[in-house]
Structure formats: C-alpha cells, structure tokens
Amino acid sequence: MNEDVSNLSARLTPSAAMIMEGSVDGSNSSSSLAAASVVPSFSSVNPWDVALCVTGSLIACENAVVVAVIVHSPALREPMFLLIGSLATADLLAGLGLIFYFVFQYVYQSDASSLVSVGLLVASFSASVSSLLSITIDRYLSLYYALTYHSERTMSCTYIMLATTWGASLVLGALPSLGWNCLRDFASCSIIRPLTKNHVVFLSVTFLFVFAIMLQLYAQICKIVCRHAQQIAVQHHFLATSHYVTTKKGVSTLAIILGTFAACWMPFSIYSLIGDLSFPSVYTYATLLPATYNSVINPIIYAFRNQDIQKALWILCCGCLSTNVPFRARTPSDV
What we know:
Layout: H1 2-9, H2 14-25, H3 29-36, H4 47-72, H5 79-106, H6 111-144, H7 152-174, H8 197-235, H9 240-274, H10 281-304, H11 307-318
Helix pairs in contact: 1-2, 2-3, 4-5, 4-10, 4-11, 5-6, 5-7, 5-10, 6-7, 6-8, 8-9, 9-10
C-alpha cells in the first residue's frame, strides 16, 4: 500500500503528497499540514515547472507591451483593437498566473494559494480563448456587414462580447474557490489538482465547442475573402494570377491562425478528456506547455502584425513620429 500511495503522491502537488504520506504513517494531520508550509529544497525543482514559469514570464512581457500600447493610444479604440486588448489582458494574466503558480508551489504552499493560482489560470486562459472567438466573430461581421460595420451597433455588440467573455471566465475561475475542487476528495482529482475531473472535462468540451464555431466562421470568412478578391480582380481587370495570389495569401493567413490555435490547445483538451490521476504527470506537462505557447504567439499574430499597433508602438517607444499622424482606417478586407 505504501508503494501505491507514493505513486499517487508523485502526481499531486508537494503539499498534497506530504499530507497523504503523513496519513499512511499514522502521524497527526495537523503536523502534516504544518510540514507542507515549509520551504522545500530547490534542488528538487521540477524542470517542467521551470519551463512553465519561464514561458509565463515571456507571456507577461509580450502582452504587457500590447496592453500598454492600446491603453496609451487614443486612436486604437475601434472594436477590433478593444478585442485585441482583451486578448492581451487575458494572456498577461495567464503569464502572471504561471509565475504565481511556480511561487506557490516552491515558496509558499497552502490550499488557499493553490486555489487562487489555479483559479487565475482557469479564468485567464478561458478569457483568452473566448477573446479569440470574439475576434473571429468581429472579423466575420466586418466582412459580412461591410457597409454597416462602422456603426454604434457594432460597438455595442463589442461591449456585449467583452462583458460575456470576462463574466463567464471569472465565474469559471472562481468555481474552485467556491467549493468545486478535490482538496478533500483525491479520487475526484483531474490531471490538474485541485480541479475535479468533471470541471476539466467541462472546460475541454467547451473549448472543442468554441473551436468548432471558429472553424465554421473562418470557413465563411474564407469564402467571403475569395469572393471579394474575385470581384476586385474583375473590376480592375487584374490577371488571373494576381487574383490567385491575393486569394492564396488570405487563405494562408486564416490557415495559420486556426492551425496555430488548434496545434497549441487540441492536445491538452483531448488529453484532459481521457487522462486521470493515474497517468504519469509528464503527459500533463507535455500537453499543457504547448497550450501556453498559444499566449506567446497571440501577440505576434493579432497585434504586432497590425500596422496601426506597429505605429503606436513606435510612437510609445521612440516618440519619433508625431502623434497627429493619421492611423489607417480598417477595411472589410482585413483578416
């Protein structure tokens, strides 16, 4: 029995392992909890946790720049930039959550800190994925309703999406602290303690649902882009080769966006559905780390490639350009 417990303890957080080992040895539970608060030796630091912490630091730095640029630039107040700002804010919190998780794992261990750090990660990554969906919806609307896109109705729709995104994400992040956790029932734990198996399955199914919606929307966007490119080619008497190149560029951009999102999050989502506490923890790390890379790539795809954000970043960093320089108006063909 001691061998079974040691195997289970290796897949829990250090504090949980101490508690379980203490219960088997017959020691007092209060002494086990006290021992869990002792600072552990850094010689036993898990390299995977270090990788997550380093990735979190990179995520936080990247997205802090994007948030600062959007907040600093009054010209970046269109719906598209508000949604990009929401995505950057969510990813910034996700990066900070990974750093806090590392600190709480190896510096200050307690049930409360575990609930807070994991809750922050759930809320921030949920907001990140939801913001990606909102950006996809915005891009679809800007193409499908090109003539009426720049209207107050669009701005109201943006605010509704932002409120829904952050409201739902905060609720999902608060659930572990409100009692939906496995701190008192190790058998119900998922691959990520202290989240329950049902909680993780719900999050994974929700992600797959969001991905299906994004796939459908980007398929519609691809059709609209191809139709627009063909119409422009006919109106301006472009060659068929020019039309092919324009269409291929738009489709390639959409494929990169959707492919990157799927490659980062799909392995972890599928593993969350089939994995449990008996699986080796290396499988969890090997699928979770690529998922965090999505927050590293998001600023590159959605922010730093945008000409208006590039210009605002140049002004913020160097002040070499006049703040009166006009920003390029967004056109329905922007994807």
